[in-house]
Amino acid sequence: KSLRVLILGDGETLNEEGEIVSLEEEDADSDEELVECKLMGVLGSMGESHTMKVEGKIQNVDVFVLIDSGASHNFISPKVTTALGLAITPTAARNIKLGDGHKVLTKGMCEGVKMKVGELEVVVDAFVLELGGMDMVLGVSWLSTLGKVVMDWKAMTMQFLSKNQEVKLQGLGNKIIKQGYLNSYLEDTYRGEELGLWWAQLQSMDTAESIISKDFSCILNQFPDVFRDHIQLP
Question: InterPro entries annotated for this entry (predicted)?
Answer without folding.
Answer: Peptidase_aspartic_dom_sf (IPR021109)
